[in-house]
Amino acid sequence: MPAALIATVVLLTAIAPLATDMYVPAFPDVARDLGTSATAVQLTLTTFFTGMALGQLVGGPVSDQRGRRRPLLAAVAVVLLASIVCALAPGITVMALARFVQGFAGGWAMVVGRAVVVDLARGAQLVRSLNLVQGVGGIAPVLAPLLGGVILQVSGWRAPFWTIALITAATAVAVWVVVPETLPRRERHAGGLASFAAAARQVLGSREYVGHLLVCSAMMVALFAYVATSAFVLRSMNGLSPIAYSVSFAANAAGMTAAALLAARLAGRVATRTVIAVGQVLALGAGLAMLVGALWLGTPLVLALVCFFALMVAIGLVLGNAGALASAAVPQHPGTGSAVLGMVQWGTAGIAAPLAGLGGQHSAVPVALLMTLGAALSLLALLVVARPAGGAGTLTRWLPGASSASSAPGSRSRALVPSGTVASTTS
Questions:
Q1: Which residues have CB under 8 Å from 226's CB, separation 6+?
Q2: CA separation, residue 133 to residues 121, 147, 328, 384, 417 (Å)
Q3: How far apart are CA 149 and CA 240, in angstroms?
Q4: Are 311 and 223 in contact (CB under 8 A)?
Q5: CATH 1.20.1250.20 holds for 3-178+190-389+414-421
Q6: Which of 52-61, 248-257, 282-291, 331-340 shows the lowest per-residue confidence on average (mean pLDDT)?
Q7: pLDDT in tens, 20-67
Q8: pLDDT tens digits along 92-134
Q9: Torsions phi, psi of 158, nearest 5?
Q10: N or C: fewer beta carbons within 10 Å in the chain?
Q11: What is the three-state SS of the chain?
Q12: Region of poorest pLDDT, from 139-148, 170-179, 210-219, 262-271
């Protein structure tokens, strides 16, 4: 795996967090400049996440049918154009539509970029390569809000979108120069979306898969309630400056990344379901504490900072592990399982964002309720729905490289990879 190719895939996977996290610190400024409400601004997150969900759902099957390079170049070009429209948007409606297109193309580019890695790597090299992409790509959510805060100190809210456009243009050049066509015609699938729909029905017939899908989706409710409202809670209600808010946002993203790396190190030492449960209980505690603070204490700054940080650490413990267990439950359809997981996760994020904004700029009750409800439903799904069928105490079937598929020649097995990734190998 050439380093230049890995770096290009990292850029592709970083477009989505950059397009969100650089923009979030400016929410109060957007609402004021466009003369709209906090809820309307948060709807631009909804349209973006809805686009991300559909882009991942459609991009994978289409690239399986048409190849990788041309669909990838087209997706990056659309992200660039949509970013420019966002920067020039005269009103919130145009902004919301442009964000949908930006999210759709960004999700498409993300899933195809990861598929390029899957085409070229096998076995342990595949796992290492995708872990490297995920680990390096995890820096984007840390740096993006800091960069956004610095930009807002010297310019307006439109400047982050121009910055995203420049980064996307550089990514397009990198894709053109570095990324070859990695899916030969003989290996392409003729079925496209029709075959995907048939496989999706089989995937959703697995109770264990659906259980871990619900674990992830419920935690996404808590996560994106935080993403959509934290700027209003910390800036509008507690008076943080854009740069101070960005530092807080970056610290929380760093906590999530550190927790995810810790969860990776615990693999093989601590049962994966136990790590997930610890994260869920931590998230539930953060939600309840936030709710108490919102209802009776006026949402003090220190409490909000601690609760948001605890939530993000919990997210790091839950999402990667639950996504891996979901994929392990359907070894016969790894790509479809990942695509459905990505679609449902981002679709849930799009629903959670406007709900969290129902309290406007001066109430943290909705975000506290969604944090609590999301964590509680996630824990319930783990305990009730996601019970592994037989061998509940077997750890190895939950670890990277493990498979419940037959080991007979020609049977399918797969490495566990992050959600949104299409990855399969033939043993």
A1: 308, 311, 312, 356, 367, 371
A2: 13, 21, 20, 33, 11
A3: 11
A4: yes
A5: yes
A6: 331-340
A7: 778 777 888 888 888 888 778 878 888 888 888 888 878 877 777 788
A8: 999 999 999 999 998 888 888 877 877 777 655 654 566 566 6
A9: -75, -25
A10: C
A11: CCHHHHHHHHHHHHHHHHHHHCCHHHHHHHHHHCCCCHHHHHHHHHHHHHHHHHHHHHHHHHHHHHCCHHHHHHHHHHHHHHHHHHHHCCCHHHHHHHHHHHHHHHHHHHHHHHHHHHHHCCHHHHHHHHHHHHHHHCCHHHHHHHHHHHHHHHCCCCHHHHHHHHHHHHHHHHHHHHCCCCCCHHHCCCCHHHHHHHHHHHHCCCHHHHHHHHHHHHHHHHHHHHHHHHHHHHHHCCCCCHHHHHHHHHHHHHHHHHHHHHHHHHCCCCCHHHHHHHHHHHHHHHHHHHHHHHHHHCCCHHHHHHHHHHHHHHHHHHHHHHHHHHHHCCCCCHHHHHHHHHHHHHHHHHHHHHHHHHHCCCCCHHHHHHHHHHHHHHHHHHHHHCCCCCCCCCCHHHCCCCCCCCCCCCCEECCCCCCCCCCCEEC
A12: 139-148
Token pair of 35, please?
């003369």
pLDDT at 82: 94
